[in-house]
Amino acid sequence: MYAPPPAPHAAVHPWQSGGGATASDQPPPHAAVTGGTVSYADLAAATDGFSDAKLLGQGGFGHVYRGTLGSGPAAREVAIKRLRAGSGQGEREFRAEVESIGRVHHRNLVSLLGYCIHGDQRLLVYEHVPNHTLESHLHHGGDGPTLLDWERRWRIALGAAKGLAYLHEDCHPKIIHRDIKAANILLDDNFEPKVADFGLAKIQHGDDSHVSTRVMGTFGYMAPEYTNTGKITDRSDVFSLGVVLLEIITGKRPVLSDEPDEDDETLVSWARPLLTKALEGQLTMELIDPRLEANYDAHEMQRLIACAAAAVRHTARSRPRVSQIVRYLEGELPLEALNGGVEPGQSEAHDATTTEQLRRMRRMAFLQRGADSGNTGATGFVSEATSEYGLCASSSSSDGDAAQSTSRAPGGQHPGQASYAAGNNVGRAGRHSGDLGAMSRRTRPGRAGLE
């Protein structure tokens, strides 16, 4: 059997042994470290000895397995992430997951049920979310293409925003996810979203205006100020959420070409002029996923477009909070409050230095995919595992942010990060039928203009 994760105060240093080992980035060499809330023997039994038949997916920092803990009526299907032994990044990921997700509970966040420390092994136990990821449904169609209709897309957009808003505004101190993307949004059988993979999460204390850290993330989703300076805030997560909203609206990937030497256009740069026109009442069907045809709610489409446009503004200070996006989607906030006085098209564009840095990061991400394609199972460029693009000492600051510092050329990167969400993209054991019937509201045909 397994026990729930410890209370927040007990989860601060779960990698310490019961013998009083000191907290550090790595356990002492050859230390006999054991502990956690689930035994290694139980996890090995649950996965038939970590059998390939139980493999959900794999990435640069480990493997994800499906298993069953307990027996009889108490049995529960779980997902078990086994981090690669001896990986410094895997150790950091383990710490980040237990310290962040181990203390939060929300219907739109994947639940951490327990963890295990066994010698140099680090394992995390999550609820199993069976219906794969938003990325797989939007871009791969899963096992037999299933179109995400508008009702489901709206539900996913709103639910993912609610989960992220909880991390930013209902957790104290706030949690910055740092890797929001379609592959990290799991779906249950009712297409209810759950934000997953907290391996890059950072804690931002109340007195800090930002956290400075290594530039890690997935190309196409990272906010400009983060790639330029290494400084991340909750508004950096907002930018990433805006990219996800654009994926839901357009059906396109965050990077429009998977060739490193072709056009560097991202979904955000492609969509910006179309978003501006839409907000001025000139919606073009080029912006909307053609698979939807006219089967969408025009009023909801207008709201989602407005949120995406506000979220992907170039400067962090001009973006709304995630809670404002939630309130606007639910009809509780006027458009003027969402926009904060920023008119359509006012967001400044990338300068030449930023554009060159994005081009370099794109090439690195493409090479990363080639190096890891044999073990990540990613079927497309954008879904390659999270990468590290440069080094910057991790720290926090209560000083005000400067306008923009000189951009830094990316340095080396680690192999892709294993992700429970990314793990659902490969080794599928068959899709659950789910609730594919009637939805809670009727979708009325969309209209060519925005109201």
Automatic annotation (TrEMBL):
It is a single-pass membrane protein. It is found in: Cell membrane. Residues 393-407 have a biased composition (Low complexity). ATP binds at residue 81. It catalyses: L-threonyl-[protein] + ATP = O-phospho-L-threonyl-[protein] + ADP + H(+); L-seryl-[protein] + ATP = O-phospho-L-seryl-[protein] + ADP + H(+). Its EC number is 2.7.11.1. Transmembrane segments: none annotated. GO terms for molecular function: ATP binding; protein serine/threonine kinase activity. Residues 50-333 form the Protein kinase domain. Pfam families: PK_Tyr_Ser-Thr. Residues 1-31, 392-451 are annotated as: Disordered. The keyword Transport does not apply. CDD domains: STKc_IRAK. The keyword Iron does not apply. Keywords: ATP-binding, Cell membrane, Kinase, Membrane, Nucleotide-binding, Serine/threonine-protein kinase, Transferase, Transmembrane, Transmembrane helix. Its main location: membrane. Belongs to the protein kinase superfamily. This is non-specific serine/threonine protein kinase.
